[in-house]
Amino acid sequence: MIAQLIVWFYGSVSILVIAFNIASSVWGRLYERLLARWAGREAERFEEEVARSMEEGPSEGHLARVERRLRTLSGMESFDRVMEALGREDPGLRERYLARLAPVFDHLALRAPQGNVLRSAFASYLARRWYRADAPSEALMTYLRGQLSAPAVHARLNAFEAIVGLGSPNDIVHGLRDLGATGLVHSRRLASEALLDYRGDRDELASALLGAFPGLPTYGKLCVLSYLRLAHVGRYGVGGNARRDRWRLVRDVMSDEHEDREVRLACIRFFRSNVWMPVAKPLAAFARSGTGEWEFAAVAATALASYPGADTVRALKGCLSSPVYQVRFNAARSLYELGLSLEDDLADVLEGPDRYARDMLRYRWQVEEGIL
Q1: How much is the pLDDT for 49?
Q2: What 3-state DSSP class applies to 242?
Q3: CA distance linking residue 321 with residue 323, whole number of Å
């Protein structure tokens, strides 16, 4: 009898769990449809109100109603939809409307609620997309910089993207410094990609970032170096003139033994895509680093592929005898990219006593030529 009761109890619980899961799934889909329908009706009413307001210009009452809408997530979503639809129908009308709407964003920034992370992240997103003014207000920039210390990564990312999209190079420098000073974990890749979306003069931004480079935290320095490397603004300045002062700054940071290891490695990677022949010898010296500095040797072995020369070849051949696999692997790949012949230029290695060096060269050539 007791066994039957236990079986009946577990069977009942299992049936209830299955019923609950089915009901939750059905309700979730129904709720999404109802929410989409409600947001669509809200967007239609908002669009009608925008059209009426543009006949004689947005009134104070209309601006107040828009501000109230932008205090809720549903109102933010409907506003975003209406602006997208208005842009498809009449881009000029939308831009004129948004220009008159800029004070609403400024007023919202002064009265921004604290603690609602989702609403704060959405507000930063809307500011980046729809704020139109000759220059962002101090209130808006203060609000965005305050969001850089938010606990949620999407709130910090949206705020930093808004600063990059709206602010000046100096604003971006301050934002990057604040983002690195929070102590929160934030992806350097996301921050670097945000910098790449800067719509202004990239050369001016690069100058501002490098001017503030010594005072940036390690996180900020790594973001700056990634931006310079990916944006290719480290080499050319205004009018295509070479900015060798930037190269020298990066070279000096790379050679500074007191600098953070990751920052120095990022400098070596920078010179892989921004070729400057005066750094060929320092890179070769890094490639000859001992086992204790194998990270420098591995990254330098990759960078040397952009610096053909006898000293480069000697340094890379030396890397083939490293006890660290990554160093040998990168050296063999760079020798192949330099166009060396396995039978002629590297015959001394193939006929030498180092079996690891011979095997790595043969493996690399077979991989590159499609044999493996």
Answers
A1: 66
A2: strand
A3: 6
Count of positions (residues) in the chain = 372
Q: Is the pLDDT score of 70 beyond 60? A: yes
Q: Are 90 and 82 in contact (CB under 8 A)?
A: no
What is the percent of the chain where pLDDT is above 90? 21
B/e letters for 258-279, b = 16+ CB within 10 Å, e = fewer, are eeeeebbbbbbbbbbebebeeb
Q: What is the pTM of this model?
A: 0.76
- Got the DSSP string for 321-338? T-SSHHHHHHHHHHHHHT
Q: Give yes or no for a contact between 244 and 286, defined as CB atoms under 8 angstroms apart.
A: no
* Residues in a beta bridge with 242: 236
Alpha carbon separation from 201 to 194, 220, 270, 351 (Å, rounded): 15, 20, 20, 54
* End-to-end Cα separation, the chain, in angstroms: 68
Structure confidence by residue, pLDDT tens digits, 219-262: 889 999 988 888 765 444 443 444 677 888 899 999 998 999 99
* SS3 per-residue string spanning 42-111: HHHHHHHHHHHHHHHCCCHHHHHHHHHHCCCHHHHHHHHHHHHHHHHHCHHHHHHHHHHHHHHHHHHHHC
If one compares 135 and 2, the residue with the highest pLDDT of the two is: 135
302, 270 Cβ separation under 8 angstroms: no
